[in-house]
Amino acid sequence: MATFVKNIVSRDRPKSGSFLASVAVVSIGEMGLGVAKLLTSHKYKVLTNIEGRSENTHKRAESASIELVKTDGQLASQADYFLSIVPPKDALSTAKRIATAMSAPDFARREAPLYYLDLNAVSPQHVREIAAILKPLADQVRFIDGGIIGGSPTPADPFDPTARWRVPSIPMSGPHKLSEAVPGGEALAKVLNSKHISEDVGTASGLKMCFASLTKGFQAIAIESFTTAHKLGVLSELQEQLKQTSSATAQMTASLTTMPPKAYRWVKEMKEIGDTFAIDGGFGEDERIFGAIAAVYNTVAKDTELGKEVTEKRKRGTTVEDVAACVAEGLEKRRKIEPETPAPVKAD
């Protein structure tokens, strides 16, 4: 969110024209693209496999000078590091893909282990399951748990991407430290603005879940509040009250305009947060609120025009007022389609 300060990493090119290391990035969505551009600007070779992916994904890869390979086996054999940055629902299957590729009879044994960084928005329990998938390959793979906190990396000066970058923070955990990896782990850890916070797999993902619960949980509340205010005809009055009495809240609501293209991904992320709070936090079934918050984002993604939004081609929801209007329109259409639930019959 815009109210949180992102750190800035200064660029430090190697003296020679060679690459610092080879990094596989999967997939090339909004965040993956930003990370890929950050890495290429810092002289890392970035690889990906986007066979069968959409035209938009191919265009993103081309825009970042990413080298394309055709198989997961090629990714796993050519990369020094593998960054998994996928929608939460695909985190487990992505690890299975790489494990399958590296277990194939024709896969050439690596001279040095592949560092697999799971940077997805998943619960600690989920990331432990991912680590377990790769455990049989422990002599070939080093697993690191991580979570991206903040927006996609962007150059501080859009006209000079070779200078300085605003980057999110990436807490990491597990028995292996990125800063100690070879080749160039110390430099990569700095470029990614990472910090190793624990020896336990799951800790970094847990921090990510707790942080996202506050930011994205708030946005879901704002969606319901602003939509209802819009339908009551008092949205402008609500915004004015927020400016007068809670300027920080007013600033946070401005981030609603960046939400529409991401809403479909956040459905699963909210469920992951719910699992975190239940399994690791100890909250009971009647205390779990993130199932309902997931439903809010599901409504945005499936029942409103906002669900059709693509980051590179925005049409609706570019203002807070239009976000509220779109959600209100979607709810009204749904109300007309869905049969009304009859009122319960009272006993005599």
UniProtKB/TrEMBL annotation:
The Phosphogluconate dehydrogenase NAD-binding putative C-terminal domain is annotated at: 229-300
SUPFAM superfamilies linked: 6-phosphogluconate dehydrogenase C-terminal domain-like, NAD(P)-binding Rossmann-fold domains
The protein's name is 6-phosphogluconate dehydrogenase C-terminal domain-like protein
Q: What InterPro entries does its record include? A: 6-PGluconate_DH-like_C_sf, 6PGD_dom2, 6PGDH_NADP-bd, NAD(P)-bd_dom_sf, Pgluconate_DH_NAD-bd_C
Residues of the signal sequence? none
Quote one Gene Ontology molecular function term: NADP binding
User: Could you tell me which residue ranges the 6-phosphogluconate dehydrogenase NADP-binding domain spans?
Assistant: 23-152
